[in-house]
Each structure stands twice: as structure tokens, then as C-alpha cells.
């Protein structure tokens, strides 16, 4: 069985390739992601990370609602899972080297939040939309997701996306400074992101310090607001999912 996420290295760059058709987030996905981050953090030769997908259609479609709506999944399991998501985002926004998202397909929901948590984003223009469909699928944003998103997306543009569930393409993301650059196809995207990633050879301590300070509001919200919100909302979310 193939790994949910594959780790390879090239020129002191770690490449994390999400390996399923939709790259949805569930406990197994989070566990593999963290395991790979452990390996990367332990290897001092690695200078940056690229997060991409092997799918020719999707980068990540977010939370695995099929897993979450399984009758065997109780509110406590949903709550634990949502805490694990916050923990992964915390790790990403304080990680001691850059994490660069190469958005080579559709990026929806929690996948979009994951992209925003990364330090930089690039996209290809020939296929792939970006959106926050939470308003349509009845899954609320966790409090810390708002500052995570706002570090990558202006409040005005995010308000439009969050309230409408509208799908937008690479050019709109570029015009709104969500992505650094847009490439014509996947080959050009992967080559361009690899070239960008090669410029980083920074001291890990100072990089982690700067990221921690820049993302202080995210960390504070995670600590003060996420736990109680997640505990309460997981029960309602469980009821809503069982009705479907």
C-alpha cells in the first residue's frame, strides 16, 4: 500500500508529495504528515520543504468528511481530530525552515487552510480551483484558522470567498497576492518551485524565532480559543453529519 504522503529529497530540499486522489485529511493523513516533519526536522541538511500532490486533478480537498461521518466516529474522536489539525498547523507556522505549497490542483476547505499555513504558495493555471466551501458543507472554521488564512489572504478577499464559497483560479489568487507566481502547467510549476526553494539556506533558530513572532496571534488563538470551541462544536458537527 502506497504511503498517503511520500517524502523525497533533492538538492537539500524535502519534497512532500500527497499521494491519494483527493488528499483528504483524516487521522492517518495527519500522522504521516507529522512523521515526515519529524524526519525533516532531524535532518540538518534540509533547507526547505515543498508540499505538492501526485494527483493530476487535486492538491487537497480538505477534511475527510466520509471518515468523519462514519457512525463509529463519536464526538470525542472528532474533537481529538480537530485538535490534531490545529497542532499540525501550529507546527507548520513555527517550522524552522520554509514550507512552500505547490498548488497543482483543486485546493478546497481545510486544504486551502493548509496552503495558507505554508510560508509561500505557487499555482498552475491550466487546472485547479481554490475555495472555502465551509458555508455549503456545514463545517465551521476553528478560531485559529482565521489568522492563519489572513496571513496569506486579505480580509476583504477572504470575506468574499468565505461568505460565498466561490471557487477562484490561479490568476485571481495572483492578483490578490495569495500566490507568489503562476505557471502554465505542472512541469513548469514543479521546476519553478524547486528553483525558488533552492534560495533558502537560513539558520534554523532565527527562522523559527521569526516565524513564531510573526504568527504570535495564531498561536495565542490556538491556546486560548481553539480547545473550548472544538469541544463544543464537535458535538453539533457530529449531529449534523449523522443526519446526512
UniProtKB/TrEMBL annotation:
Matching Gene3D superfamilies: 2-enoyl-CoA Hydratase, Chain A, domain 1
Origin: domain of life: Bacteria
UniProt cross-references to InterPro entries, sorted A to Z: ClpP/crotonase-like_dom_sf (IPR029045), Enoyl-CoA_hydra/iso (IPR001753)
SUPFAM superfamilies: ClpP/crotonase
Protein name in the entry: Enoyl-CoA hydratase
Organism from which the protein derives: Pseudoalteromonas issachenkonii
Organism ancestry: Bacteria, Pseudomonadati, Pseudomonadota, Gammaproteobacteria, Alteromonadales
